[in-house]
């Protein structure tokens, strides 16, 4: 069993780690700051009460007008000017709605003593360069000079809120889901249920085919609209994919229940996100990363146990080789405690290959389970981008 399972597990782990890395970087700006909420303070300047109040105010503004306003406090912009820095972040975060480009970014570089209001294209006629300059000179920098950073930021947000509230912007789109998306999702879910019933021997093939036809007709009528002929082809394919996926997972019960648990966890995040800001990068990618690490060490334990049963001398030799990798990696890292922790992770990964050779060549039977994978895309929370972010450099800068 391990002979075919081991390369598959290693490939699976690599793909999952790569997927998590891409997910974690998806909403990250070129300067390494992720948009996971409307107020991001990397300087520990604002107190929790102020941050909560600002988030609530900006969320309310977005619900009323659709415009996305974000506040970013950083120690320094480095070699970049605050104008370039703010423009890069606005574009990378895609602040504002895609068609309206009605995003605004307030950036404070505390150590540089500089501040910038970056305005998206759609609001440059509302928050003009002159008005942005007046907000900075009359409300932000006087407060900052007195050390009242929370007061300066709050006043700026109040001013921007008044201006945006008075703007004639496109109406906010409703939160409803398109019927087409609902139809495809229902097709996948119903297909998955059918696949499990077939795999469990509870649903004959003829009845399954009849059910596919009925579901396709109903869902095509519900969500197909003018494109119903295309959905007559898409919906059966979606049901087939769902059925094949969950039918195969049913054969590996542990993995099946793990996937169901993961889907319930994601559903719970979506429900919580309706009332509380949820960072899907943190609450989804990090637990998945922990599961990947746990799974990797579980596989390592299995192959080490198999190597011990096959040849104790071979086990000792391979253990010494893994230990040598650990020592070499720790010496090369030369970063104190963190370096040796990194070396342990590297040695553990190498050990998978070292001991895996024994598991692959032993040919001994094992009653281990199968391993499957599931991946999920984090949907945008209320603090995610709106697809905008285009700015021609409109806004104003200042210093104190």
Automatic annotation (TrEMBL):
The protein's name in its UniProt record: TPM domain-containing protein
Residue ranges constituting the TPM domain according to the UniProt record: 39-160
This protein's UniProt keywords: Membrane, Transmembrane, Transmembrane helix
Biased segments, Gly residues type: 385-400
Parts of the chain that traverse the membrane: 181-201, 208-225, 255-272, 284-303, 315-333, 339-356
Region ranges (Disordered): 361-400
Pfam family, one: TPM_phosphatase
Biased composition (Low complexity): 364-384
Matching InterPro entries: TPM_dom
The organism's place on the tree of life at top rank: Bacteria
Signal peptide limits: none
């Amino acid at each position: 069993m391990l002979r075919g399972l081991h390369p598959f597990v290693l490939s699976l782990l690599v793909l999952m780690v790569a997927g998590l890395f891409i997910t974690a970087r998806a909403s990250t700006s070129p300067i390494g700051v992720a948009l996971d909420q409307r107020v991001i303070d990397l300087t520990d300047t604002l107190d929790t009460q102020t941050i909560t109040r600002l988030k609530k105010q900006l969320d309310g503004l977005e619900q009323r007008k659709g415009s996305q306003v974000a506040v970013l406090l950083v120690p320094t912009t480095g070699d970049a000017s605050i104008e370039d820095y703010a423009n890069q972040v606005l574009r990378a975060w895609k602040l504002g709605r895609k068609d309206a480009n009605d995003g605004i970014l307030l950036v404070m570089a505390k150590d540089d003593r500089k501040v910038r209001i970056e305005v998206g294209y759609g609001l440059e006629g509302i928050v003009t360069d002159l008005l942005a300059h007046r907000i900075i000179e009359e409300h932000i920098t006087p407060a900052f000079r007195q050390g009242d950073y929370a007061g300066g930021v709050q006043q700026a947000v109040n001013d921007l809120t008044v201006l945006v509230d008075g703007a004639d912007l496109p109406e906010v789109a409703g939160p409803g889901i398109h019927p087409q998306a609902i139809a495809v999702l229902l097709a996948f879910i119903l297909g998955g249920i059918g696949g499990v019933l077939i795999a469990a021997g509870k649903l004959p093939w003829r009845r399954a085919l009849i059910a596919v036809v009925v579901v396709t007709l109903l869902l095509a009528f519900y969500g197909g609209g003018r494109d119903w002929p295309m959905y007559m082809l898409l919906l059966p394919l979606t049901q087939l994919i769902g059925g094949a996926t969950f039918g195969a997972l049913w054969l590996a019960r542990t993995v099946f229940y793990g996937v169901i648990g993961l889907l319930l966890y994601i559903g719970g995040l979506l429900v919580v996100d309706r009332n509380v800001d949820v960072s899907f990068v943190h609450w989804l990618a990090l637990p998945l990363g922990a599961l990947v690490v746990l799974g990797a060490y579980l596989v390592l334990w299995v192959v080490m146990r198999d190597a011990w049963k096959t040849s104790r001398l071979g086990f000792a030799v391979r253990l010494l080789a893994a230990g040598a990798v650990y020592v070499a990696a720790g010496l090369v890292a030369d970063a104190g405690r963190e370096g040796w922790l990194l070396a342990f992770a590297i040695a553990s990964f190498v050990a998978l290959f070292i001991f895996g050779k024994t598991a692959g060549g032993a040919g001994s039977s094992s009653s281990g389970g199968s391993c499957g994978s599931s991946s999920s895309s984090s949907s945008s929370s209320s603090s995610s981008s709106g697809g905008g972010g285009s700015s021609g450099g409109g806004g104003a800068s200042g210093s104190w």
